[in-house]
Design a protein that fits this description.
- The chain is an alpha/beta fold.
- It is globular.
- Helix 3 packs across helix 4 and helix 8 runs antiparallel to helix 9.
- It contains ten helices and nine strands.
- The chain folds into two domains: about 190 residues, 2-enoyl-CoA Hydratase, Chain A, domain 1; about 50 residues.
- The chain starts with a strand and ends in a 9-residue tail after the last helix.
């Protein structure tokens, strides 16, 4: 457990555990680079279907390592700050949150497709309290995850939001007892991984990019990707398995 990121394969699920518990898993350049490399692995390996991102020691992530920042580190990668925020994976990614998800930690969670959080966890973008700006997705993604007035309040006050309230407002998908977020996220990942890989990637792509499309763009821009899914071997296999009343055997083609 000496690595700043512990990467484990659990069947077709890639579990990534941020492992700087004494720093509350704050992101320095080494951890950002390790997250980016793990996300690259998730996307490039056909044996993997879903990723889960969590933190060791009872904390998801306290944000950017300010001591490293003061030394000149910027925790940036080709995928953006934190190794993820600008270019999330093509495959589904779940955040399993215990404790604090602050600043860049909150932005990492928002860059994931789904969030499972333990009751008592906290989300926040307190950058304004440090003379900084939540420019790694916090200010752009939070208004899509929460009502606009509340998102603005969090951005301007820097005060945190409880997981319980985030769940009630739809930002958090599943709320668990303390200590159970990872198990619930892994169970959700297994359920997702049982579905067709090509259909999963295309469904995520359409949902994550269609926000800015108008009605004309919608049909034109999704047409090729949808045609690839509808003409795939997996589409035939799904229909055949349904007719034969058996589990499908996906190939990703």
């Amino acid at each position: 457990m000496d690595d700043v990121l512990v990467v484990e394969r659990r069947g077709s699920v890639l579990l990534m555990t941020m492992n700087r518990p004494t720093a509350r898993n704050a992101i320095d350049q080494a951890l950002a680079s390790a997250i980016a490399a793990a996300v690259d692995e998730l996307d490039s390996d056909d044996r993997l279907a879903v990723g889960v991102l969590t933190g060791a020691g009872g904390t998801f992530c306290a944000g950017m390592d300010l001591k490293a920042f003061a030394r000149g580190e910027r925790s940036g990668t080709a995928r953006g700050f934190g190794g993820l925020t600008q270019s999330p994976p093509e495959k589904p990614l779940i955040a399993a949150v215990e404790g604090w998800a602050l600043a860049l930690g909150c932005e990492l969670a928002l860059a994931c497709d789904l969030i499972v959080a333990a009751s008592g966890a906290r989300f926040g973008i307190p950058e304004v309290k440090r003379g900084l700006v939540a420019a790694a997705g916090g200010l752009s993604r939070l208004p899509h995850a929460l009502p606009y007035p509340l998102a603005m309040e969090l951005a301007l006050t820097g005060e945190p939001l409880t997981a319980d309230r985030a769940y009630a407002l739809g930002m958090v998908n599943r709320l668990t007892e303390p200590g159970a977020a990872l198990d619930e996220a892994l169970a959700m990942a297994e359920k997702i991984a049982s579905n067709a890989p090509l259909a999963l990637r295309t469904s995520k792509w359409i949902m994550s990019t269609a926000v800015g499309w108008n009605d004309g763009d919608l049909w034109r821009r999704q047409e090729q990707r949808v045609a690839e899914v509808m003409g795939s071997q997996d589409a035939i296999e799904g229909a055949t398995a349904f007719a034969e009343k058996r589990p499908p055997r996906w190939t990703g083609r």
